[in-house]
Amino acid sequence: MLRHSIASIVALALFGLSRLIYSIVISRRFGVEVLGKVNSLISQAFLLAVPLSFFAVALGKYASEFLGRGEMEKIKSIATLGFSFPLAGLVLVPFNFYLAILAVLRALQLTFRSFIYGLHKGEVYAYTMIGAFVLFIGGFLSENYYLPYIGLLSGVAIFGFLYLFRERLFGKPSLETLKPLLRYSSFAFLGTVSGVFLIQAPYFLTEKLASPEAAGIVSASLSAAFLLTYLPQVLQSAIMPLYSYKYGKNEMEYVKRLAEDSTKLLSFIVALAVFILMLVGREILSLLFGFNLGREFYLTLMAVETYIAYNPQHSGAELDKICKRRDHNFTPGRCGFSRCLDILDKPFWRIWGCFRALSGISNDTNWHISCGKQEAGSFAHFLYSICCSSFTAVHCISLKNSPVISFCGIRWNIQKRNKKGVRAV
């Protein structure tokens, strides 16, 4: 159990650092506009990878379940089904080669990670990530700025397939295993795509609606601040076995208390990290990236802190009976409607650029949290979304004139959301 947790932390740390290292190197070698363009395409590929890795979450769940029962043939069956589905993305190669390749490789990486964790072999994924990270670093020797990420993701895919073939974990697919996979994946997909929209959309929306230069600045800020978003995943990976064990023994009071304590601890650690970054983060990152980051970096930190306030609650909720209610609340419809409002705000993107993109993350996350008990599509839900879009301009103006005022206002909002979230879990 301890080995699995440590391996999960190592793998998450390497993958999280890869985006920051990639952004720094591309920025210094090719400039901020190229940084914006390449991160825009990578984010589109990561978003496309979600439907291509449709069976990923269910694959981990049923791999663990069948392993406990000793049903190895069923494990082989679901492995064949799960790893075949991402290959459908290859049909997009004639339209956009790099988009298709990155999306397929990312989907295979997500599928392998979920499957190998389901088999309680987290150390295998950690070793795979270490090998893939070497290919990632080697990719910088080329002038092709997509090659490092292709190396990273293809490394995971190649090492993953070699392991699966060596352990003979592929078998004949059957309708008996397809049905539960399809049923659970249809349900889990709703929550997954919502979170990915929230994280990846600012990269390519900024490039499309503002400018490549603004997208590059957003990429620099987000690639650094989003390292904090791996903290909930590290925490979840570290304590998930204990959660599952106590939940299996039906000790619901212990599960509830552990969810509350872990959320409070995570919120405190993130707040402390954000405070330190507010003091020295902008200067350090400006030195690393080779251009001066503006006050939009502070808004990035606020947005990420708000996102994390939502994220651990969702992760903890997956372990008890409110999972179904939450995953229906965090639907693609909410994120999709929110992004439609972003597109309608195109004049604001042109005027405020980076500020518009980064304040949108904070607004969208607050929407998710505050509307958690509202029915999607309700009139109140609609009004709140309009308010989120309208207050974007206020956030931008307040941050440009006084970051302290904006910071205090958003911190008060986060505190309220955290209290509601902890009680819900």
UniProtKB/TrEMBL annotation:
TM regions (residue ranges): 6-25, 45-63, 83-104, 124-141, 147-165, 186-205, 217-244, 265-291
Domain of life: Archaea
Pfam families, sorted: Polysacc_synt_3
Bilayer topology: Multi-pass membrane protein
The keyword Cell wall biogenesis/degradation appears for this protein: no
Keywords: Cell membrane, Membrane, Transmembrane, Transmembrane helix
PANTHER family: O-ANTIGEN TRANSPORTER-RELATED (PTHR30250:SF11), PST FAMILY PREDICTED COLANIC ACID TRANSPORTER (PTHR30250)
The protein's name in its UniProt record: Lipopolysaccharide biosynthesis protein
Organism per entry: Thermococcus litoralis (strain ATCC 51850 / DSM 5473 / JCM 8560 / NS-C)
The organism's taxonomic lineage, starting at the top: Archaea, Methanobacteriati, Methanobacteriota, Thermococci, Thermococcales
